[in-house]
Every structure is written in structure tokens, then in C-alpha cells.
Amino acid sequence: MSETNRHQSFGQRVAGIFQRPSTPAFIGLILIWLAIGVLAGRGLWDTLNAGIIIATFLVIAGIGQLFVITVGNGGIDLSVSYIMTLSAYLGCTIMAGQDENIALGLVVGVVAGAVAGTISAVLIEVVGMPPLVGTLAVGFGIQTLAQIYSGNVVGVASPALSDFTTAQIGPIPVIGVVGVVIVIIFAIILKRTAYGRKVEAVGQKPVAAGLAGARPSLIRGSAFVLSGATAGLAGVLLAAYSGGPSLGLGTPYQLSTIAVVVLGGSLIAGGRGILPGLWAAAVLLTLLTTLGNITRLSSGYQYMIQGALIVLVLAIARDPSRRRRSNRLRDDADEEKAAEPALISEQQKEA
Amino acid sequence: MTSFPDDTVTRLKGDSALRLMARAPWFIPTVAAIIVFVLLVALRPAVASFTGLSLVITPLLPLIFAVLAQMFIIAGGDIDLGIGSYIGLVNVIFAVVIPTNPVLGIILLPLMVLAYAGMGALIYLRKLPSIVVTLGMSFVWLGIGIVLLPTPGGQVPQWIVSMVRFNPGVIPMGIVVIVVTTVIVAWFLERSKFGAVLRGVGSNPEGIRRAGWSVLRSKLSLYALAGLFGVISGLYLSGQGGGGDANIAQSYVLLSIAGVIVGGGSFAGGKVSVVGAVAGALVVGLIGSLLQFLGVPSSYQAAAQGLVLVFVLVLRAISSWIRRDRGAL
User: Fold this and answer.
1) Number of Cβ pairs closer than 8 Å across A and B?
2) A 263-282 residues with CB < 8 A to B
3) pTM for this model (two decimals)
4) Helices B193-203 and B215-241: angle between axes, nearest 10 degrees
């Protein structure tokens, strides 16, 4: 690459980075991180470290929510928080503080979530309920189950799993690495495999995707099963981290899993899922809570900020003049077209 | 019946008036409400007395107004997940702000209705999904409520309590309120010209626009009405409870949606029925009382009411399969 060429492509590359849907989340993450450093005077690395550990549970639960939102059709999973709580109780009861039961506890937590997700999928795709009602009804059923079940058991996470959630290799938290690896795996699944492409295609144009060989109702149903499973996994891990299950364990995740999808640059109408953005948004939200706690902001203000942030990002992020078509399944073809010429010309120059 | 003009009735000679009535969206929920009520009376005969009726019906008033609020939103083709926190905030304003600073409280309530209208405008103008915006706003309402009143407490002024509990006799006041409200809202939404425009926004916004009506103004009106009924719901809840709690009405999110759906409303095309919604609210609410009478712990009630919703939707899906008419939900 020659010196002049490099200069040109650098400008384009910077422009390209700013056009990426996940960039705002990363910028926000860095700003809040630095703000904490200035305000608290705590070590920057320690802050980020703690943030990434706690954010990992949100990342895992958020991945399922991202798939559900990306398959479109008004997809949204409101049962995530309840599944997390129930799976936390189930997993910890089975582990009963014994290390040899880790695998069984995790599997039961994940399977319970997947079963709940399957019930939602049947209600939505077979019976024909709107996703909102189907998942909310399943969620309330699970909440009741959790309330009854929690009265009869004392769940104790296995010490090894608890240690695992806080373990560090040198300065790097293990669970944070696990979270990043999971994000990379699901990013590959969504963007590089046939299944993932079908997920995005069904979210953009279900009829066209159906004609192209995908089965829209099956793909949509699978997203709800996945969401239940990831919620179950996140629930068991969170219980292990926080020293045991509690009835309020999953509550914050009902809104925050949706928030991280929206803040991360995925399209709320479906058709485009951005996993790196999800990760950045999860760390951002966690650090925002840290910032709130450092500045001794009451939980009321923290709720207000979280809620307003989502509405604000939604209101700013999408320009309705760009998509005049009064179609419920709006795709982002216009934006893709705008971004692509820059990429092509860059590739040509490099060649 | 309300959906058929009189000349239609005379033209359809083959159908008896009863069959037409049975086909109206409010018919099944009304029958269901009566059945649940009869079950209640069978279980506790005292329910049929003046005191019994007042005791059973009065606590349902906040829920009925919440269901009507949700009905306006669903009529516009949207869903409101924030109504529970909103009613909770109204409750906090009645319990904390109005006793100490009545002027500020009286100013705040219309402002909240305006904020609801603004939320509707935002959803329409930016073409945002109502579910996510109202869910986000629910945390804003809840946050404000918690800032004003961190833990349950406060004292609703006596004049509000006595106003809400006013019950002069002959007919329980709760029933009078329900009937009067239903008649007014049903006339407005199903008989008046403006009501027809508002219902059209949910089923055919393009048609409303081409007919020269403003879709934006209609959405504003629907959300403002929802905000107003949310305030009334909060007023009754405050007067009945006497205290304040930002989380008091969280269960109304599912219950209000359930009430509208059980009452014959549908998400697709913004189909709603006012009489049906009130009957649906009674069904959902009375089932709660029924479970209470049967000694079912309160922790089971959320699931039971969720199950009723699922049951109704499954039934409706089956009947639409039989008629080979998809998209009835």
C-alpha cells in the first residue's frame, strides 16, 4: 500500500467505522468508563474488569433476546427475567453446593429455559398469539412456579462455579473472556451460517425468505427456544456469582436485555442483529449502574435514566424520512446501500 | 349489536336478533362475566347483597379504568406496557404530592396526561414500536415514583378517600360508576364521528389520512385518553388504598391487556369493544376474587389470570381454524 493511498483509505476507514451500527455503543462505553475514572478516582482497569464480569450475564441473556428481535414479526421476549429466576433456583437446588453437580445443574437450568421458550414458540407460531402476549403469559406462569418452588428449597451454587465467575487469569476475568467468546460464536452463527442468514432474512422479508427455502415460523420459533436457553444459562451463572438464587434475581433483565439490543445498533423491527454492539451496550449499561452507585444516585433516578436512554436512542437512531414505505417490516436496505460503495472503493484501491 | 346499523338488521332476515347478538364481540365476555359472578354468588351467597356487591365490585374499579386505558391504545393498533407504572406514579402523586402541595399536584396530573399524548406522538412520528417505547417509559414513571416515595407510605387526603368511597345506597356506587362510564365511552368510541376516526387509526390509518383526518391528532387523542383513564384508575386506587406505593399497579400491565383481549379486542387491526372490554375486566377481576374465596394463595393468582388469557386466545384460535379464517387474534 503506497503512502498516498494509505492516507486516502485511512479517511474512508474512519468514516466506515463511524457508519457502523455498533460504534455509538462503544463510544458511550468509553465515555462512561472515563467518567467513572474521573469521578471515582478508582483504577480504570479495575472498573472495567468489574463491569465486564457483571455485564457477561446480561450479554448471555441478551443474545437470545437479540435473536428473537431479529426474526422480526414484532418479536420480543418478555419471559427472560422470569426464566432466569426459575433456572437459578432449579440449577442451584440441583447443585446443592456440590462441585460434581455443576454440569447437571447448568444443563437443567438451560433445558428448563429451552422448554419455556418452546411453549412460547408454540403459543406464538402455532396458536398465533402476538409474541408480547405469549411470552408475558408464559413469564407469569413461570413466576408463579418460581414463587411456589422457592418456598420449598434452599439452592446453593457449587463453590467451584462461584469461584469460576470471579476467577482471574492475571488481570483478565475468566467469565469476561467466556462472554466475549460466546459473542464471537453467536456472531459467526448469525452472520456466517445458513441458519443465521435465514434468521436475518426472515426478519427482513418473511415471504421472500420463505420462497427462498427458509421456513419462517420454524426459524422464528427457534429464536424463542434459543432465548429461553440463554436466559436459563444466564440465570444459573448469575445465581452462582451472586451467592445464590433470589426471587428478584431476573427482574432487571426484562428491560435491560431489550435495551442492550437496541443500544447495540440492532434494528428493533428485526432483520439486523449486531452482536459486538450488544456486548458494548451491556458493558455500557453495567458501567452506567456503577456510575450511579458511585455518585449515590437513588435507584429511582437510575430507572429513569435507563428508560429514558432507550426511548431517546430509539427516537434518534431511526430517521423515518428514509423509510417512507408504511411497511411494518422495514429493512435497512437504504442504509446498506449507502455504506457499501465506500467499502467497495476501498477494496478496489487495496487491490 | 353496536357494530350493525339498524338497516342491516332488517336486511338480514334469516338471522334472528338473538343470533346477531351472539355474534357481537361483547356477547361472549358478558356471558362469561355473568357466569363468574353466578359462581361467586353460589360460593358466597352474601355477595348478592348490597354490602357484598359493594365489596366485590368496588375494588375492581381501578382495574376497569386501566383496561379502558389499555383499550384506547389497542384501538390505535399499539400496546401499552407502561400503564402499571403510570398508575403507580399517579397513586404516589395523590399520596405524597397532593397532601403537601395541592397546587403542584393538580398541575402534575394534566402534565402526565400531556406526556402520554407526547409519547403517542413520538411513537407515531418516528414509527417506533410501541412495546419498547412504553416499556422504556414505564421505567421512567416508576423511577419518578420511587424518587418521590422511595418506600410505600404517604397518606391520601381524606377528601379523596371519602369521594371515592361515597356510597349513598340503593344501588352500589361501583355499579353506577361502571354503567355510566361504559355508556359514555361506548357512545363516544362506537357511535360518535370522532370515535369512528379514532378506531380507524388502528385498522386503516391510510384510509383515515386520505379521508382528510390527521392520524397524528388521532394518535395524540388516543394516548391522551389512555393517560386520562390511567389518572382516574390511580385516583380510585389511591382512594381505596389510602397510601402510596410506586409499585402498586404493576400487575395491571398483564391484567389490562388480558381484559381487552378477553373482552373481544384483537391486536390486529385495532378491533375493540367497549362493553366487551368492561366485561373482560370484570371476568379477569372477578376470577381474582373467586380464587381468593377458594383460598388460592395470592402467588398463584398471577399465573391463573395469565392462564385465562392463554385459554381465551387458544379458544379463539381454534374457532378461527374451524372457520378457516386466520388472523382473528
Assistant:
1) 136
2) 268-269
3) 0.82
4) 100
